[in-house]
Structure formats: structure tokens, C-alpha cells
Design a protein that fits this description.
Blueprint lengths: L1 H13 L5 E11 L3 E4 L5 E9 L1 E5 L2 E5 L4 E4 L5 E5 L4 E10 L3 H8 L6 E2 L4 H17 L4 H23 L3 H13 L6 H7 L4 H12 L3 H19 L4 H7 L5 H12 L3 H7 L4
Amino acid sequence: MKKLEVMLLALEEAAPQPLHVNAAGYSAWLMGQSFARRKSVIFAIEQVVAGNCEFEQNGKRYLLGPGEIFLLQKGGRHLYRVGPAGFLLKRFINISGGALEPMLSACGLAGRNVVSPARPREIERLLRSITALLRTKRENYLLEAGALAYRLLVGISLQGLSSSLSPPLRKVLELMDSSMPAPLDLAALALAVELSPGHLNRIFRQVLKMTPLHYYAQKKMSWACYLLRQTRIPVGEIAGRVGFEDPFYFSARFKKLYGISPRRFRQGGPKV
């Protein structure tokens, strides 16, 4: 986790507004209240504080209680309403910006509907802090809110993903976070969690739909996408930051994965 904190601080220095917070707040609903969108043009995070909420998105239905989070995905069709408790208190945040899609992909939140964080109070505190910043409108408040939004996404990802995983997979993901961007060896990962490489590969595929090394490579490339779009760091230096000694090899891998060179990706990427 210390490694992750260092990465967060470095990112804030390089791109003080990694994401843009459009709105944040707190709302109270009573029985019968609901809201629906046919095709959402926003991405939002909503956390149930008290009561409960019935949530539908893209054909899937959920009943969420205190502490749980539902994600309103951009482009999705969703409906949420007060649940059987008869009331709903929730906190929310609406986020946009050129970094949003790469961040959602890197955090494993792209297309995800709900998250049950292991420590919901920590998530709520971040939401409170962002709301307070928007209300005060002090100098540079949008920059601070954007940095907190980045921390919020990472926190939701780490808490929500790890809480639903077995101890070996959770430990492997923690090793990846602490090791990035250094090279990882499947045999060493398997040894660290006392499994055979084949067994680790199988359970990783079952849960995350890819091999451990593919997942790790994807995390590094998602991080590269973020740095390309949100900083002015030279492409060669970004290659080193995500674990490539040879910038030309990095560019070749990037183009093979995304169909475009890192420089073209930077030039054509959306602006915050």
C-alpha cells in the first residue's frame, strides 16, 4: 500500500486535476421516489448511507443497503428508487474528464454496477470531503476535488475487489500493487501464495477472466494511458515508469494493443 500512496502523490504533482468533479452532495428520499435514465450521459458514484435502494442497470437488479455503492455507468440504462425500508439517504458524486475511462479500466470499475466496500466509512469520508470542497469554493478547490476523486476511485476498487476475493487472489493483487512497474514472474507469484503456477492461473481466469501476467500488463498499460493523457511527461520517460526499458518496444506494444502510437494517443485524447 505504501507503493500505491507514493504513486498517488506523484500523480497529483504531475496532473493536479486528474478528474473533474461536476457535482457532489447528499440527498434524502421517501417511499415512491425514483429516477431513471434511458442512456446516461454521466458517470456517477452513489453510496447508500441509510435505508435501502432498489437499483437496476442494463437489465440487472440489486437491493442495496447502508455502505453499499452503485455506479451509474455512462451510456447505460438505469433506474433507482427507494427500497422496502421506505426511505433512502445517500451521498453522490458526478465525475467527468479525459482521465475517467482509463481510470475506470485500470481500477476494474468499467461496466461494474455495484460495489460492497470492505470499509464503507472511509469511502463516505472521501465523499464528505469532496462535497465540502465544492461548497466552500476556496482557491483551487476544483484541483483538490479532482485529486480526491482519483483517490476515491482507487479506494473503491481496492476495497470492493479485494472484499470478494479469496485470500490467495487478494494477496496476489496486493503484490502487484506493491511491485508495479517491476517485472513479475508467475512462478514467484504462485510461490508467494503457496499455489502451483497452473492452479494460480486457473483461479485467476475463473474470477478475473485473464491470466495474472495479462492482468498485470493491462494495469501497466492503463497507467500509461493515464499519464499520456493527463501529463506532459515525455513518452520515453512514461515507458520507464510502466516498466519498459526500451521506449521503442513500449511504443510497439502500445500500438499493438490500442491500434495507435502513444504520441497519436496523446494528441487525440480528450481533454479535461
